Amino acid sequence: MTDQNLKLDAYGNVDIDYYLKLARAQRAEYVAQLGAAFAAKVKALFRVAPTKLSPSH
């Protein structure tokens, strides 16, 4: 078995509230990154290259 340092509450039980807060924070960070990546891809789809004007005009 591996030695794991688990956070325990005052009664010696695994601190579930701590791990729920940690998981929510990690999930929120991931969703924010995912949203930013999605927004960048959508923005790239609608990006229009400027037209090149011919120098002869």
Give a written overview of the molecule.
- 53% of the residues lie in helices and 0% in strands.
- The protein contains one helix and no strands.
- The radius of gyration is 25 Å and the shape is rod-shaped.
- The mean pLDDT is 88.
Task: List the main descriptive attributes of the protein structure presented here.
57 residues, rod-shaped
What can be said about this structure in brief?
The protein has 57 residues and is mostly helical. It is 53% helix and 0% strand.
Topology:
Blueprint: H1 16-45
- For the secondary structure, the number of strands is 0
Helicity range of the residues?
40-55%
Separation of the first and last Cα atoms: 77 Å
Q: What structural class do you assign from the helix and strand content? A: mainly alpha
Number of helices: 1
**H/E element order:** H
- The quaternary state of the protein chains shown equals single chain
Cα radius of gyration in angstroms:
25 Å
Structurally, the number of domains stands at: 1
What is the makeup of the main sheet?
none
How large is the share of residues in beta strands? under 5%
Mean pLDDT: 88
Outline, from the CA principal axes? rod-shaped
* Unreliable residue stretches: none
